[in-house]
Amino acid sequence: MTYQNYSLKQLQQIDAAHHLHPFTDHKEMREAGSRIIAHANGPFIYDSDGTEILDGMAGLWCVNVGYGRDELADAAYAQMKELPYYNSFFKCSTPTPVLLAKKLTELAPKHVNQVFYGSSGSEANDTALRLVRHYWALEGKPEKNRIISRKSAYHGSTIAGASLGGMEQMHNQLHGAVPNIVHVMMPYAYELSLPGESDHDFGLRAAKAVEDAILEAGADKVAAFIGEPVMGAGGVKIPPMSYWPEVQRICRKYDVLLMLDEVITGYGRTGEWFAAQTFGIEPDTITTAKALTSGYQPLSALLVGDRIAATLVEKGGEFYHGYTYAGHPVACAVALKNLEIMEREGLVERVKNDTGPYFAKALQERIGGHDLVGEVRSIGLMGAIEIVRDKATKERFLPAGSTAVLVRDHAVAQGMMLRATGDTMILSPPLIWTRETIDMACDRIAKALDLAQ
Ligand code: PLP
């Protein structure tokens, strides 16, 4: 029996009765019910009432090639018929993860030539954490095991992912985080820069917090620094261009590895295949997932730089770590086809040269001037709108986030899906958006802002 045999109301009742959702207040959910998204096509999602909504979040930062791609379904079907599953353990491989590893290392920065697969961003970050600690142990420095991360970072929901992350609410529920992880300030100029401080200087000061943390722990105790190139779930916080090169310089100075979490930014979002290329840095690990398959299959790839890979190979010894679905043949077949579509349609170049700049201008000109908006910012096709009570003083509404939620609800009613995180509205649309889609989104967001006023 398919869902068409059920009414929306019935589906919501069954959902409330049996389905525990992620990041959800289950009491509230029981009372309000969920929005059931039944199908999707191109840039639009549809609920089981048939309501059309423009998806400003690409699902959850992942559907970069948009919905309804028959080619991806066909790739999955063909692979399932040929070989639905075999593992990559015990000196075995299957063809698609091998070919995908080749492709990924061609797209990645030059010093990245190895890939470790998982099924989610969280898993990939668990792998990254274990890998950097393993690296230092192989180098004869097991005590060099601390990780520096940032407040408000999101690195996943497993215990390691949440411990790496800097979300206070998540830490409050961890009841025992992974030890030896510290969190420093984030490069969030809108709230944290000083009066008169330039963006450039703020970026350097935020990077200095990394150096301070290294010095406080002692460089011989610090394994790595981890960060999202652009903080995503924390509110699309875009660092000044001075930040990442300075963080890299500091990491090199103290022989600390640099881990970049590109689960959101990987595969075109910032206008390059990887944000490492946008910011001009060479991290030792790059965590990727989501848009690797445009969300059509669960798959993550931890891209591993030559420095770590060389030690793994030269020193040898088993790395006791891996997942049943690592290098899943069907997920990898879909990823290969997804990357082929992105290349064929020039989606990454389009973000860089056309839709990214147009998106930035449209947000500034059509949303930035609204009374409720303190700042708009974007990079490539990810953007943020700061909701404030007072533009000049940056005073927020109380309770925190209340007006942002109102804007979001009005936006959805206008046929526009975007997300509210605290007082920040965030956008991360499919990369197939055109200038016309951006105009449509701005019209709907502007209307939602008016209605929330
Ligand atoms: N890292 C970042 C930067 C993310 O945004 C996310 C998810 O949104 C994750 C890791 C976790 O990925 P997943 O939800 O696939 O485990």
Automatic annotation (TrEMBL):
Record keywords, A-Z? Aminotransferase, Pyridoxal phosphate, Transferase
InterPro entries from the UniProt entry: Aminotrans_3 (IPR005814), PyrdxlP-dep_Trfase (IPR015424), PyrdxlP-dep_Trfase_major (IPR015421), PyrdxlP-dep_Trfase_small (IPR015422)
Q: How is this protein annotated for GO cellular component?
A: cytosol
GO MF terms listed in the record are: pyridoxal phosphate binding; transaminase activity
Q: Does the keyword Ion transport apply?
A: no
NCBIfam families (alphabetical): PRK06105.1 (NF004767), PRK07480.1 (NF005682)
Family designation: Belongs to the class-III pyridoxal-phosphate-dependent aminotransferase family.
Q: What is this protein called?
A: Putrescine aminotransferase
Q: Tell me which species this is from.
A: Mesorhizobium tianshanense
